[in-house]
Amino acid sequence: MVQRLRAPRPGWRAYADTVVVGSGVAGITAALAARQAGSVLLVTKARLKDGSTRWAQGGIAAALGVGDSPEAHMRDTLVAGAGVCDEDAVRILVTEGPAAVRRLIALGAEFDKTADGSIALGREGGHLADRIAHAGGDATGKEISRALIAALEHTIGEVEVIDHALVLDLLKDADGGAAGVTVHVMGEGARDGVGAVHAKAVVLATGGMGQVFDATTNPSVATGDGVAMALRAGAEVADLEFVQFHPTVMWLGGAARGQQPLISEAVRGEGAHLVDGSGVRFMVGRHPLAELAPRDVVAKGIMRRMAETGEPHMWLDARTGVAEFSEEFWQHRFPTILESCLKHGIDPARDLIPVAPAEHYASGGVRTDIWGRTSIPRLYACGEAACTGVHGANRLASNSLLEGLVFAERIGADLAKGLPWTETPVPVEAPEGVQDVLLEPSVMAEVQHTMTAGAGVLRSAESLDRTADELERLAARTADEPHLEAWEATNLHLLASALVKGAALRNETRGSHWREDFPDSADRWLVRLAHRLDPVTGRLVTEKQPLRSAEMDGVKP
C-alpha cells in the first residue's frame, strides 16, 4: 500500500520546471545546473546556509597535485569501499572531479594556497597521496557554502528559494513519474503551512539521516526526509546498512545527545596520534597506515581498545611537540576545531582531546544511475541523500563534497536534454489505496536510543533482532495531529527500519558494517541491498542487486 505522511490539504501552490530539495553543495549545485532546463525552485528545510555542507572540515578530494592522478584516486576509493563500490560511478567521480573543483573556484570559492600560489593539498585517512583541498584551515564546507550561495544570489529571476520548508511527499503524474512535492513552510508569510510545488522534475539533495542515532556530527535538520519521501513514493533505496561512524568525535560524556563536535581526520593527517589512557598508540600495528587507515578501521580500532581497557573514550594527542603542532599551527590550520575545543574547556596545544566514534555519514540513500536518475521517472537524487555506489561500504575521506558537485552537475546535463510538456498540474488529493502514516513525536528519541544500542558501530543478530522488535513496537505509537516533530519521527522510524533490515540480512563484516557474529567478509555479499515498500502491503521488501548501475529500466528524463 502506497504511503504518505498525514498532513493538512495544501493551501497554496507554486510552479517550476524543476524543484530542488536541499541547499548543501549538492542542492545548490543542482539548482544552478538545472537552469539549463528552465525555471528552478529550491526548497530548504532551514536557511540556505544551515545544511551539512558548512560543517565539513577536512576538505574536498580531487587529483589536483603533481604526481597524483584520477587512477590513483580511484584505487584509494575502491580500497576504502571494501569491494562494493560501483566502479563506473567511481571512475566518473575521479575523472570529472578535478574540473568540477576548478569550476567551483571559478564561482569564487577560495582554497588555501602554498607559498608559490598553488592549492595547498593535505592528506586524510585512506588516501595515499596529498589530494585534499581545504579552505580557511578547517572551514572548507563553510567556504564552499558561501561561494555557492553567492552564485545563487546572482541568479535573480532564475532560481526561487523557499526556506524553512520541510518536504513531505512526492506528487506523481498518471504515469507514475515525479510531478512535484508537497511541503510545509514553518513560518508566516505569503506561503505558510502545507503547500504543493508542481514541477516537471524533482531533485532530492536533502542530506543525511544522522539524527537516527543518539550522537552524530550532523545538524539537527538531518532527519532523512528526502530518502523517506522517496521510499514512501515507491523508489528504491540502497546501502543503508553502511553508516560511517567518524572515529574522532569529541566525547562530551555518556549523556550527550544530538550534534557533537567533529575533530577532522585532517588533524591526524598532520601527524596527531591516537592514544589510550596509558598513552599507548594502539593503532600502530593494527594497520599499515596506523591512525590514517580508512575510517571504518580506525573506528573499529577505537571501539576494540575501549572494550579492552574499559575506558569510555580514547584520546587524540595533537599537543605542541607532536609532529608540526604548535599554538600558532592550531590557530592557522584548524581555527574552527580550536574554537570548539576551547569552548569545551580543552586547549588542544596542551591537552589531550577525548574522542569516540559517532554517526557521521550515510553511504546509502535513494539508488541512482550515473546520471542521478532514480527508479521513479524524473525523480533525481544527489549528495548524501543518494546512493550512487561511489562510496561502497565505507566513504573515502573528503569524497562527499566532490560527489555532490560531480553528480549534481550531471543531473543538470540530463535535465537539459528535455523535460516533458505538461498542461495542467497533477491533483494533490490522495488517490485510492494511499495510507496516511504519522507517529508520535516522542518516538524519535526512542528510535535514536534503540538504534545506538543495537545498530551502531557494533552489531550482531541478537542486537539487530532486538532493535527490529523495538521498532515494530514503536510503529504502533501513531498520532493524529500533524506537525514537524511527528513528521520527522515518522521519517526516522522508516529509515531506521530499513537500515536494521539490511544490517540483519548482511551476514558479514564489510567496511562500516561491523557484525560481531560474522567478523569476516564473504564473496556472496558482493551485492547491493535495495529496499522498497510493497505497493500492496506497505511493508519493506529487501532484495540483493548487482553492484554496477545499469540505466534505470523505464526511466526517461
Automatic annotation (TrEMBL):
Cofactor needs: FAD
Subcellular localization: Cytoplasm
InterPro entries documented for this protein: FAD-dep_OxRdtase_2_FAD-bd, FAD/NAD-bd_sf, Fum_R/Succ_DH_flav-like_C_sf, Fum_Rdtase/Succ_DH_flav-like_C, NadB, Succ_DH/fumarate_Rdtase_cat_sf
UniProt cross-references to Pfam families, sorted A to Z: FAD_binding_2, Succ_DH_flav_C
E.C. designation(s): 1.4.3.16
Substrates-to-products reaction catalysed: L-aspartate + O2 = iminosuccinate + H2O2
Enzyme class (EC, first level): oxidoreductase
UniProt keyword annotations, A-Z: FAD, Flavoprotein, Oxidoreductase, Pyridine nucleotide biosynthesis
Residue ranges constituting the FAD-dependent oxidoreductase 2 FAD-binding domain according to the UniProt record: 17-401
Pathway: Cofactor biosynthesis; NAD(+) biosynthesis; iminoaspartate from L-aspartate (oxidase route): step 1/1
NCBIfam families: nadB, PRK07804.1
Protein name as catalogued: L-aspartate oxidase
Organism (species): Catenulispora yoronensis
